[in-house]
What does this fold into?
Amino acid sequence: MEDMESIMTIALWGLTGVLGIALAMKVTERLQLSFAKHPSLGGHLRMAKRVAKWIPGYSYAQDKWFTADGAPQAIADQRRTALADLGQALQSKSPQTLAQTQATKPMVSDMQLTSQYRVPFQFRNLLAQFIQTGSFWSASEGAWLTDMDGNPFIDVTGSYGVNLFGMDFYKSCIQEGVAMAEKLGPVLGSYHPCVLDNVKQLCEISGQEEVSFHMSGTEAVMQAVRLARYHTQKRKLVRFTGAYHGWWDDVQPGPGNPMPPSSDSLTLNEMHPNTLRVLRNRNDIACVLVNPLQAMHVNKAAPTDSTLVDGSRQVHFDRQAYAQWLAELRKVCTDKGIALIMDEVFLGFRLAEGGAQAYFHVKADLVTYGKTLGGGLPVGVVCGQSRWMKRFNDKNPGDICFARGTFNAHPYVMATMNVFLNRLKTSEVQNLYANATALWQQRQNQLNHALKAADLPVRVAGMETIWSVLYDKPSRYNWMFQYYLRKHGIALSWVGSGRMIFSLAMDESVFDLF
Ligand SMILES: Cc1ncc(COP(=O)(O)O)c(C=O)c1O
It folds into this structure.
């Protein structure tokens, strides 16, 4: 009997010990995760969602609007007159474009959203009484866009990054693509003959073995993550604070998504050793997603003018440091069998022909492309090593990784992509790539020089052909700059002065006008 009691006591102690160790391990894992989060709200998405709900909607009335920084009455009066003049100038410049925008906006929710988020929210109601922004273009040529009133604007909207070689380039890609696909027409579910050439070229450019076609960048990312989960049999994806990977729930947790952040998606601090520790110590991570555009503003979201609350903005690009970070990430992913996914939907083909992989000297397991690769038509592509791309299990026929889409590999898109890929090999495009880094750095320096010489409190910074306007003097009104640029014929996207996207083909004569 006594023996039995002793055995029970030992077993209980043993069990308590095991539970204690398991608990300690869980607590350590949790703490490591907490330390690997970026300290900003962007790194704490549950809290960010809570805070977002608490922010009361309010608008500055006339008096406060013009004196938000405590300016004296005389300055407020000057501002009121300047705003009215600016609004009047924009109205008389583009009456038709603005009328069309006003007529369409009540029926297009996307237009309503983007027009709401161009400036800090306190200012927008009164601003709308003075200034309207047109959302229509009627023509494009070279680096120029023309509004419905015939006004030319220099295009730095970049068409969300698609416009890498100038609009004429894409127009002719589409024309040639349509001619190539015409005979087959929109036959879906099988392939236009040009697809073989597309996949060969994509494998070569990406340094990968297989390709899958999708209809948007968002879908390409969804597929890359699904494949990583399938092959690792693990659930968690790691993304970095501030990085955009499309609007699918798992990669767009936090404010903007009505669902609470999924526990399968970890948002970690980019370029931080604590993140590497989490990747090394956990055993439930399927993939790490990298958007190399973040190299310009690590751990921060796109620098929109609506967030210019205090007028400051930080952009700093260090190519070597980012390459070093990617090399460390590569190593830990290889050691742990985690899929490293380079999301090149935005930057693919912009930094170099071989994309961010070539530019930062890193080899990913899966790469996503989109935007410019469609030659002007909508597309998403995943390239990867066969062991990551395979969608079924030879030993178990029921074990498949399903992904389809009615319009995948649409003949017109494939043909236009084929024209795009073939054009990459021309000497014209090769020359653009060869000189890009030096040329765009020199242009950045040249513009900053001119801004300094003119004693203006703005300058530009960025990565290759993607720039942000930085404001030397903090102000509650720096976001107004976007409207003055528009008045002077520069077209920005709704993000505003935080993201100017140039085409590699913009020549000196246009840049000088800048
Ligand atoms: C890096 C990145 N990934 C994915 C996407 C989503 O692509 P799409 O808008 O074609 O769905 C974007 C779009 O901006 C992107 O920049």
Remarks:
- The radius of gyration is 26 Å.
- The chain has a mean pLDDT of 95.
- The first strand starts at residue 139 and ends at 141.
- The chain is about 45% helix and 15% strand.
